[in-house]
Every structure is written in C-alpha cells, then in structure tokens.
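Kindly inspect this today.
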Amino acid sequence: QVQLVESGGGLVQAGGSLRLSCAASGINVMNIFSINVMGWYRQAPGKQRELVAVISRGGDTNYADSVKGRFTISRDNTKNTVYLQMNSLKPEDTADYYCTAATLWAQIGAGDFWGQGKKVTVSS
C-alpha cells in the first residue's frame, strides 16, 4: 500500500522561506507507476483545495500562477520523495498543504494517494 508522509511546514514571517517534503513508502516494482506524477495542493480556511505545483518523474513541472517564481517543486526518484521549496512567502500562502501522487498527469488531484497535510502559517 502506497503511503505519502509529509514533513516540514510551520510558522514563518512574510518574506521568509519554508520547505515541505513528501516521502512515498510501500513502493515496489508493481506499484512504482503510482507515483509517476507527484504534486502539492493546499487548502486555506473556508476555501477549496487548489493545485500548487506538480512534477512528473521526468521533471516536467506546472505551477499555480499565484506561486510562480516563488515556489519550486523538485523530486528525488531514488528516494521516492517530492519537495516544495517556498520562498518569499505571503500571508495568503497560509494553508494546509497536501502531497498527492498519480500515475498520469491528468489524474493528479483525483487519485487515491494523499498525505496527511502540513500546516503552513505566514504571519504579516
């Protein structure tokens, strides 16, 4: 069974930086395709969950317009881990951040694998 375990996050002042990590466990040759695409979503209080960034196994990326130029998604395929480096943080980045994985790019966000969520709070 594939599991996604997140780490990082926390409280930071506006303009600061944080890094989130998400490690996939339970990976074997039969289910390695389940994490072909990995990404981060976030959900702020009272708002819908939204896509933040996505990365393919080959390194193709996509970002929400609101984070372009400030956030960087990366992955280490040898560790089955995806990272989200968040710079120049703004109070509006405050949210619970969730890691997710899927086989195909079009499936990201609609798949079965989600992390438990990590809170990111940016104070003004």
